[in-house]
Amino acid sequence: MHVLLNAGSLSPDDPRLAAAAPGARFTAITSEDEMHAAAPTAEVCWGARWLDVLLTDAPRLRWVASGSAGVEGLLARLAARPEVVLTTGAGAFDVPIAEHVLALLLALRRGLHHSLRAQAEGRWARQSGLDELHGSTLAVIGLGHIGRELARQAHAGFGLRILAYRREPVPAPAPVERVYSGRDGLLAMLAAADAVAVTCALTPETRGLLDAEALDALRPHALVVNIARGAVIDQAALVAGLAEGRLAGAGLDVTDPEPPAADDPLWGLDNVIITPHVAGNSRRTGERQAELFLANLTRYATGQPLLNLVDAERGY
């Protein structure tokens, strides 16, 4: 078995690789030329850089292990190779992303963005209208790895009441109080929320899920946080709600498009905090990705079912 290491921090001589797949050959890929050279004998590839080269030049390819949690951009390119399975890095990003959501919520409720602006201008500016998270209701859209970790941290650390939305009805896992599904369920959940966090995958069903109607279901004091994909939210409707005072604020780690254009009105809204798609970044994330790949490589080498196997029809 020939395994290409096209992502992350594992080097071919890492003893953990040989332990996971005894007898396999490992090649580090750092350029498109190296991909062209190594692809013809590759069976497994960790990482999706130069994927089109890989799919064209690797007739023996059977598994692509993406290091990312979201893979909507890869599925269409893999459609012509149905014999190739795709797995994600879901689970490697849960903790930092959940913390990032809470950091954005705290910053918005405590007015830290206003304080930082005043500090940069050399002003001592006391604010009114500050609030707290404790006891408020957080609606989580998506109950995958990230959504569940966010629910855990938000409830245990800040005493938030947790509601959640999924495409299909399921029993509510602790500490989630209730799981909603369907359009009517989404609107009912949003109407009860003090803040909403988008953590779901981008699929045809979730594209534009938070449209003008959904955003209007939120109360004027509500916050919107998105760490998933920008296109889950109708950005024009979000900007209008924020500019007109129908929403209190937004914390956006993702936008549509990304990054926003220089003249995008998002930049000028003083009730918005934008971070540049870094919610999953942590000095520990790379090691979690490596551990997940090693666990899956062991499973692949021994014929066991893979973790985080993507269902192409569902989109995640």
3D architecture notes:
By secondary structure, the chain is α/β, with parallel strands linked by helices. The chain has two domains: 2-92 and 283-301, 3-Layer(aba) Sandwich (Rossmann fold), CATH 3.40.50.720; 94-274, Rossmann fold (3-Layer(aba) Sandwich), CATH 3.40.50.720. It has eleven helices and twelve strands. The chain has helices at 15-20, 32-38, 51-57, 72-78, 94-109, 112-120, 145-158, 182-191, 212-217, 235-243, 285-301; strands at 2-5, 25-28, 44-46, 63-65, 85-87, 137-141, 161-165, 176-180, 195-198, 223-226, 249-252, 272-274. Helix 5 (94-109) crosses helix 7 (145-158). The longest helix is centred in the last third of the chain and has 17 residues, at 285-301. The radius of gyration is 21 Å and the shape is elongated. The two termini are 27 Å apart. The mean pLDDT is 97.
